[in-house]
Amino acid sequence: MLTPTRRTLLATGSAALVGGALAACSSGDGGETGTAENPTTILYGWWGSPEKDEAIFAAIDAFNAANPDIVVEGESTPWAGYWDKLATMSAGGDAPDVIHMSERYILEYGERGALLDLRSVDGLDLGNLEETVVALGESGDDTLYAVPAGLNAFVLGANLDAFEQAGVEVPDDATWTWEDYYAASAALAETGIDGSGYGYGIESFRPWLHQHGETMYTEDGTAAGFTEATLSSYLEHLLTLRENGGQTADQVSEGAGLPLEASPFANGELGMTWLYSNQLGEQASVAGARMQLMRIPSQTGSAAEAGMYYKGSEFYSVSAESDEAQQAAAVRFVDFMVNGADAIEQVGMIMGVPPHTDLVEETLTDLPEVEQHVLDFVTELEEDLTVESPGPSPIGSGNIQGIFDRECLELLYDRITVEEATSNIITEINSELG
Fold first, then answer.
1. CA of residue 210 relative to chain centroid, distance
2. Residue 170: how many CB atoms within 10 A of its CB?
3. What is the pLDDT of residues 336-390, one digit of tens each?
4. Is pTM, for the whole model, over 0.85?
5. DSSP character for 24?
6. Cβ atoms 39, 315 nearer than 8 A
7. CA torsion sign, 189 to 175 to 409 to 12?
8. Can you state the angle between helices 369-381 and 280-287, rounded to 10 degrees?
9. Residue 320: how many CA atoms within 13 Å on its side-chain side?
10. What share of the chain is helix, strand, coil (3-state, %, to 5)?
């Protein structure tokens, strides 16, 4: 499929926004869009993959066919270059009219005036979404900078074929503990495959924090919200997994740059991995293997005490830099993506479980087996969620995953101690946020 675009890839710049508040929207035509003879053209930019791009372009085609007064053009960029590109475009006053957003950067862009308050516009119906879902894109003062494109959870994936070939029983994820997790990983490793990946970083650390009664950030978002003791216990957990079938440091380092089709989990070389729930379908498709999602282990054996939570997998935002006609067109397109049966039919589960649950039930009635499993898993997970879903990450948090990546890898290589890694991570997080 051809990739329509009205802008070429710009040279990459800083991953953070440059300067202070970005320009407010310029004067337009009073919020009206164009006509069939002279349509309003807008750009939608997102981070993509071949499967995701195909689905989104199909949704764009459906919207354009039904809305002759608007032309939506699409531009996909790999995740690795997306944020530098978006920062450069925004700094130059040329951001996409519809911006694909991650919760890591919602406040980074929103609080600097780059994103429209979606509660202040006409044409976007939020009544079909649970208020707790809408709140995933809100700032602390109830400004709505982004609307979830889908819901997911950060959990474990199990390659059932790898378990079967190894002769290892798949644990009961509703009752398993960390000790059960280590035992399953070790049993897999005894048969010649790696037991589990680590999943270190913000998403797997948060449930560990919740299990210890702590949070990732302070309430004002200016510092780490957890103690040295709890972070150290998490890092010790990584070393325990390493001794019980976890990947080697070399495997972790080499795997970081591998495409999906070359990943150890997709190739049956890894029994369990940490992933976002919406990623399982693509993994299973590439692997040609039976796979399933698993709840996070707990300290007690109760899934309700595992500290899991729903997360907005991806979000739609509207640029505050666009003129009024473009903003009106962008809002209508976002409404279509959230509330349109045609959009949900085309996009399906590729960005997580669509937040309009009634339409999901009506529209996604013939999903592939693995996608139906993901939908059922995420839906049924609700009864085990006992902590509130975190809102958008604080300003300055965009690099924190990278801090974890670096320090945890150094720890796995035994180049630093748990104490040194703990000190480094907390110091650097506080520096980023302070």
1. 19
2. 16
3. 999 999 999 999 999 999 999 999 999 999 999 999 999 999 999 999 999 989 8
4. yes
5. P
6. no
7. positive
8. 150
9. 19
10. 45, 15, 40
